[in-house]
Amino acid sequence: MTIYNQEEVVIEEISGGEFEREPVPYSNWKSWKSFLGMYAGEHAAGTEFVIGPLFLTTGVSAFDLIFGLLLGNLMAVLSWRFLTAEIGTKFRFTLYYHLEKICGKRLVTLYNLANGMLFCFLAGAMITISATAVGIPFDMEMPQLTDTMPNGVTWIVIVLCIGTVISVIAARGYSTVAKAANWMSPVIVLAFVVCGIVALFQLNVNSFSDFWNIWGNGSEPFPGQIKYTFWHVFLWSWFANAAMHIGMSDLSVFRFAKKASTGWTTAAGMYIGHFIAWIAACLLYAVYLKSPEAQVFLSNGQAPPVAPGPLAYNAIGVFGIIAVILAGWTTANPTIYRAGLAFQAILPKTSTFWVTLIAGGIATVAGLFPAFAMRLLDFVALYGFILAPVGAVIVFEYFFGAKIGIQSFYAQKTGGRFNLAVFWAWLISFGIFYFISVHYNVFLSFLTLPAWLLCGLLFLFLSKFYQNKVYQ
């Protein structure tokens, strides 16, 4: 064994195999195949069974939906490839350790706590989605679009059981998460395709014009929803995963990649999951809207429920139940894994296994409350808006820091624990654009990119100011 290999073994033993505070060594780099399965599984997932129908409730037109998704998902792939994967394979740190070197321990602790909690809530929505499938054989009452609280003992028991299994898988580390996704993703993708084909038959679609006319020029949004245009779909689909690409959360994933080009594997998730799967789920909901049950809701001025389990079951039977369960798992697993890394950065002496179990427990409790899943479009937009600007700090330092003469990894080099440049850059950018969203009722995804850019620019300007002040 060479000295280099011996060092890698020692590093792995110290870090528990996840390298939370060390660069991932060469022996643990993974090929593009591991990422292909993970991204296909994570994004052709349980949320797609909710997001697809929710698009239909916004009254979006066929053109706006299809072309908005095509271009928005392309921008997401480019963000992963040229920002996240580029930086992830350069330094091979988790997001949390990378930020600690820039922000300082105290400031990054606040970020890690917020980041971990938001990921837990997102994973909770996945658990909710799986529960709608598991509950079918038990004749469980399904959550309505406006529900916020658990609706019965059966619901609570099912969510707790699903959450426990998912948490244990996530706690076993990235390799287990990737293996689970590789096994499950082909089944889930097949299920979405079959669901879409069956729905087309049920809708009597015999030509592309018939398919186009399902949406036509759009319609009035359902009660409680806003009208979506091309720009809503384009920007929402680009920033649905803003925390993970421009927010740099997936540094924690791409640090295992052999090279930056692995970032292209995210296209599997975007175009299988966020294009084909969303449209297939839209079709399932279109079928349901023609049912007598849905018509009763509509006649009473209410939005029909969006319960993924029954929608898939009505189309392809038991296979649909299995697909929804697996789809929830493959998204919740890496999401809880990311949350565990965030909490582990706060409690570095605690093993990743145990903090991930804690994250899974929080996610499971969140899964008891259907609101996170039923208001998924709004929640995803909000959590991306909160977390994405912090990623701009990493991106702008990497690409522009040396050019304007600021110190990289400033907190690590100076022993600082609270980088004011980062704090004020995030607070000002978040405050300005969130005020605009609330006060002028502007769709939040319209403001994610401006907030991200402003945060990055402010970080450079304030860093120059504070660092000059220190070194004068």
UniProtKB/TrEMBL annotation:
One of the record's GO molecular function terms: cytosine transmembrane transporter activity
InterPro entries found in the cross-reference section: CodB
One Gene Ontology cellular component: plasma membrane
UniProt keyword terms in alphabetical order: Membrane, Transmembrane, Transmembrane helix
Spans through the membrane: 110-133, 153-171, 183-203, 228-247, 268-291, 311-332, 353-374, 380-406, 418-436, 442-462
Identification of the protein by name: Purine-cytosine permease
Annotated organism of origin: Christiangramia crocea
Lineage of the species this protein comes from: Bacteria, Pseudomonadati, Bacteroidota, Flavobacteriia, Flavobacteriales
